[in-house]
Fold this sequence. Notes:
The chain has five helices and two strands; from the N terminus they run αβαβααα. The two termini are 12 Å apart. Strand 1, helix 2 (32-37) and strand 2 (41-44) form a beta-alpha-beta unit. 48% of the residues lie in helices and 10% in strands.
Amino acid sequence: xxxxxxxxxxxxxxxxxxxIGTYFEPFLGxxxxxxxxxxxxxxxxxxxxxxxxxxxxxxSSPENTEEMVSRTLESxxxxxxx
Length: 82
């Protein structure tokens, strides 16, 4: 089963109010809903620490993201498979 919200992101946001102050995303994952909504202000979180590291690197050092993702995947391969 594919648990990704990416495929249904447009449908999900169709239920949101027209105006949103701060968007809170408790289950960031691939960021499908956040990327589709593109709010002015957002707070995103996820319980999977390696995923959050990837997002933080993308935000703070986009030029280092590819290297960081490779290292994270290599050191957490079992976690990503489950």
